[in-house]
Amino acid sequence: MDKHRIKTALRISLEELRLWLQNSRCILLAVMLVFVHMLVITPLSECAADMEQPVSILEAFIALANSGSILLVIPLLYLVLIADYPQVSGNFLFCQIRCDRLSWIMGQMLFAAWSAIFTTLFLFVSSCVMMLLSQKGTWQIQFSDAVTHYTSVFPDRRGAYICSLLPENLYQQMPLAVSLVHSLCLVCLHFFITALLILLLFLIQKKYAGILISGTLLMAGTLGAQVRDSWMWLFPLAHTIPWLHYEKYIRQMVFPMTASYAILCGYSVLIILLCLLAAKKYQPGIVSIHD
């Protein structure tokens, strides 16, 4: 693959990213923060207050990435964020550069990656900042005693909401740093697959069907994670939640973590190949990019 095509694809992706960040839909990023504060920061702050000990600021994002209910809301908001992707409005025609279909589709795939990475890092940084500003969070690269000893101090609250955010399956099975890396990578892969699916359905001129299918997969995955049945592993969401891979007490995996990475990467590669096939029949025409 020649350098010119790669350079063109990169420019297309960055232009798409610029337009995406300027879109009024990005107000949904603020909506995400509201949900994160309500569903993660406030419960962790209450946990820290009850235990009279701080929690780790890193636990905020890990809690976000390990709650099935939150991982329904946040990906749905991300789905709405990229609902207009790829953007083909008339504004594209004011500054133009011609490219072939392969360069264009590569640019769109790169944008899918940029948007997934940006949203994941946005959630990570903002959740850490909000936890720090709550004055109940501190910097430490290990699970806090406030979380790990909560049920032993308050055994009558074993079914409390905070226990579903950071369950025993998580902190008893892996260190905080490992859990954080898994959470970041798996959430990012989930977003990436969602964006690729939207792109694929756009290329076969079924864009709204793509939004509907993505939303249905999210809800089905959330239901599977709640009932914890074996069919949940058919959906990307179950693979995104680290604690679902482990037993509660014994150090034994329910489903190999490496297999989840392989499946999510496999889904990504499959959709990319389908996008390349669909792109052969799609004519993007002129893509706008500043020289």
Largest β sheet strand count, sense and barrel closure: 2 strands, parallel
Order of helices and strands: HHEHHEHEHHHHHHHHE
Helix content: 55-70%
Strand order of the largest sheet: 1-3
Strand content: under 5%
Task: Return residue spans where pLDDT drops below 50 for at least 5 consecutive residues.
Answer: 90-97, 285-291
Query: How would you state the average pLDDT, rounded?
Result: 83
Could you please describe the fold and organization of this structure?
- The two termini are 21 Å apart.
- The protein has 13 helices and four strands.
- It is mostly helical.
- Helix 3 (58-64) crosses helix 5 (101-133) and helix 4 (70-81) runs antiparallel to helix 11.
Quick structural gist:
This protein is mainly alpha-helical and 291 residues long. The protein has 13 helices and four strands.
